[in-house]
Amino acid sequence: MPPRPTQEGGPPRGGRGRGRGGGRPPRGGPQIVGTGRGAQMAGAGVQPSGSQAAHAHVATVGVRRPNYGVSGKKVSVFTNACEASVPENIIYHYDAIEKTLPARVNMVLLKQLQLEPEFHPAGAYDGKKNLFMPHRIDFGGGANSRTYHIPMNGNHQQADRPPPVFKITITEAATINPEVLQRFIDGQQSQDETISTALTALNVVIRMLPLQTYPFNVRSFFTDREKIDVGDGLQLWRGYFQSLRPSPGRLLINIDLSTGMFFKPGPLINIALEVLNKNNPRLLSPGPDLGERSIKELERFLKGVRVSVDPATRGAPARTVVIQSLTREGAQGIFFNLQDGRSTNVAAYFRELSNRPLQFPTMICAKTAKGAVIPFERCTVLPGQLARKQVPPDVTRKMVEFSTKRPADRLASIRNSFQVLAYGQSEYVRNFGLAINEGTLPMSIEARQLPAPALLYGDGSKNKRAYVYRSRRTNISLSIRIEKKLVKPMTINRWVVVSFESDRRFPAPTLMQVVGQFITGCQSVGMTVVEREPIFTWESPQGNIAKALKDAGNKCAVKHKGKGPDMFLVILPDLANANIYRAVKHFGDITQGVVTQCLKSSKCTRAKEQYWANVCLKLNPKLGGVNVILDNSSASLLLDRANATIVMGADAPMSPLLHLSSAVSTANLVHYIPRMSVQRSRQEIIAGLYEMVSSIIKDYIDYQKNVEKKLPQDFKPKRLIFFRDGVSEGQFAEVKEKEVEILKKVCDDLKISPPPKITFLVVGKRHHYRYVFPSERKQQRRSGSLVVTVLLEPSSTKEFTHPLEFDWYLQSHGGLLGTSRSAHYTDNKFTADALQAICYGLCYIYARSTRSVSIPAPMPTLSVQRAKNHYDPRGVDLSDAGSTADTASLGVVYGGL
Asked: What's the CATH number where 653 sits?
């Protein structure tokens, strides 16, 4: 077919003959919404002929796919996606709204702006700066920009004043030809900024209608159809995530559920009482029952909350204000001057204007950014406000319960989401020529179920070599009954028990019972406890935690003639706050790494065998031991002594923490080296990476020389596998280029010759594909989720991987509740089967878990979360404010020996 001109005089495009299909549609046939290229073939069962391999001249950000894996058993599963077609019309990109306003306000202004005739048919706006139009805007006179003055109609609240007017400048930015996106998914074009912009534009198009109707955050929007109150002045709302994703030969829409935390609507007095856990409105007056600490807590909660204010003047309309702060006095104690010069207070002012006195004149008041003071009883919290705050500990459990859905229920909710997503009713989807085949959800794809690796247990085990159960639960959790021993169990010579629970709630007989059960648990897995009657003390949780532990340690040293304890067993009260735990962990750091093991009092007093086995799984590695290792046949590439391999895991999350970890092959991938560094938050490239990697490799070489007693030619590593977490898709190229160069420079400066072969992998956990909803009952767990070991890398239809590069999804864990999330891997230089086997095997040696986990053991997720507990809080600010840009953050390096 010869090239044909595009609409609006765009560049010519070549014709194609492609099908759209793959997943088997539900009964009743496919439902196609909108119009677009290939829409008539979507869901018809036609395999995409455009799913060819990337052309040789096309550059890639990552590594080209070397081949498709073949190991394991082929299975079919469903996933939460449906098909869409790439539109044919040119898309015009404009910059809009230069002034910084909330996205909610920007959406209202742009909707008002598009009533102007030159904006018909309407375009799609992202709430920030990007406006995409299906046609070129005629600004008149050939101009490429124009400034509009838009009134906020329908939102002004005072009849005697005109609505506020906002100045909006619309400037032409770029022209987007969707042809580049089609070429990309056909493997004929490299991924670059034009591809990213085209995907961004289409994502804005499908989100435009719901964002105008419902509360939203970056990529999700929420409805009150499913919601629950969770206390603390908060509610949870069910939401929906949607994202257009490229795949070989086709465009997909990934649809998933999400959960949003919202401020509970209603009278402000009721919300304030719930936040402070009080039951009498009179307790919101300054005094012994409402001190400065309580007011600050309430102020932090209410800052930025929009409330509707009952008018002081009878008959006037209600108005909306935003709470900025709270007063420290009651309404009758706050004085100000009227326009006629008279002095009055807030309570008298509202009584005079409305002819009704305040019911609670001594209650504190809300203040706005302009200084207006408003009594609580005149304020009502408006519905639909996202609480962009840290989730309170009491709410976390309820949030997990609300978010958890069995796969069948999750799929049903996703199907019902089409009523809310409303693709068929969206004028924006129609205007841009986007076709969406709702009938292809869920899509059926091909996967492979990998065989479980064999694990080795220690001497004395009934069966030293064992395979993991089908449920992917390791035998060690049942060690007492089935006689499994740790590979390298450690000895505890001297130890002390410190209880921060009162001796009334945790008396001596109970403590001695716990001590006996702990010793029995250690013995059952092969650990030796020499001291049978340790020192134990009761300490106040409000006291100096470090001093209490030090005093207990000194008592142990006196008992053992100057030898201090190997371990502190610390009993925490049920209502312990994070400060006690942090202080205990920090004490272990400042005392040259003395091991601490914390137990919750309510857990250990009624604990059974499995509890103590799990405690030993945590404690033994802290003491330098090894719990379980992979059999050589299950990790031959990593355990090849002729090609010593270092496996590292690194993370640079958006929180103020960094972590890098490493495991060494000759130590069976289970010993780790910790390192910490301070860096600035919200930076993608790891600061101090050179120093941390250099230190780890030096320790590795020293270990090979002095512990493994290797020959000089075998001291240095031959291969380095680097797992990298916390990388956004837009930063893949920068992180790969800069951090791989750092790794090469470290090896060069350490004179490692020949230089080790470096494999750099990106591991993603925050995607929304759910490879669940098994098509065969025997593939399901009791929860309804997939059994683990399912690797999603289709070798025939190739529907879900990157159009050009080597990536795959590995579901290496079994979900106990709800729907499991697979890990997404990108980049490598091994064959597909070899690298996938490495990643899969590493998911089975996570020391503190009795199950396979979702990401390889060297990944630093847990240490990132806990690193701040090991750092002197006087050195770096790790408060909530520390997570913002331009503040110091704590970095952790966790390498292996």
From this structure: 3.30.420.10
Q: What is the CATH number of the domain that holds 318?
A: 2.170.260.10
Q: Where are the alpha helices (DSSP H) in 303-406?
A: 346-354, 393-403
Inter-CA distances, 482 with 22, 463, 476, 650, 846, Å: 47, 9, 8, 36, 21
The string of pLDDT tens digits covering residues 223-253 is: 999 999 999 999 999 999 999 989 888 899 9
Report the alpha-carbon distance of residue 695 to residue 689 in Å, rounded.
Answer: 10
Residue 782 β-bridge partners: none
- 429 part of a folded domain: no
| pLDDT at 606 (0 to 100) | 85
Q: Is residue 792 situated within a structural domain?
A: no
Q: Do residue 670 and residue 522 come from a single domain?
A: no
Which is more confident, 336 or 782? 336
Instruction: Report the SS3 class of residue 508.
Output: helix
* Domain shared by 570 and 503, yes or no: yes
Q: How far apart are the first and last CA of the chain?
A: 62
Instruction: Please tell me whether residues 758 and 861 are part of one structural domain.
Output: yes
- Specify the pLDDT at position 443: 86
Decide: 254 and 809 in contact? Cβ < 8 Å: no
Q: Which residues contact 567 (CB under 8 A, 6 or more apart)?
A: 492, 495, 496, 594, 595, 596, 597, 619, 623
For every residue of 69-112, which 3-state class applies, written as one string?
CCCCEEEEEEECEEEEECCCCCEEEEECCCCCCCHHHHHHHHHH
Q: For strands 495-499 and 567-572, give the pairing.
A: parallel
- Mean pLDDT within 10-18: 35
Closest C-alpha among 297, 330, 321, 299 to residue 369: 321
Model confidence pLDDT, tens digit, residues 441-452 = 888 888 888 777
Residues 6+ apart with CB under 8 A from 833: 69, 70, 71
Sign of CA dihedral 621, 623, 624, 629: negative
Task: Supply the range of the domain harboring residue 479.
Answer: 454-622
Query: Is the separation of the CB atoms in 41 and 20 below 8 Å?
Result: yes
Whether 270 and 347 map to the same domain: the answer is yes
Distance CA 120, CA 140 (A): 15
Q: Are residues 533 and 462 in the same domain?
A: yes
Positive or negative CA dihedral for 350, 355, 356, 361? positive
Task: Over range 328-340, report the average pLDDT.
Answer: 91
Sequence-ordered list of residues with C-beta below 8 angstroms from that of 712, at least 6 positions apart, any chain:
none
Residue count (the chain): 897
Where among 381, 405, 421 does a domain terminate?
A: 381
34: left (phi over 0), alpha (psi -120 to 50) or beta: left
Last residue of a domain, one of 357, 381, 405: 381
Query: 648 and 559 in one domain?
Result: no
Question: Per the domain annotation, does 652 fall within a domain?
Answer: yes
- Tell whether 486 and 612 lie within a shared domain: yes
C-alpha distances in Å from residue 138, one per residue of 124, 129, 167, 428:
17, 19, 19, 19
DSSP H/E element including 755: none
pLDDT(616) > 80: yes
Angle at 465 between CA 464 and CA 466, to 5 degrees: 115
Do 694 and 571 share a structural domain? no
| Confidence band of 409 (pLDDT split at 50, 70, 90) | confident
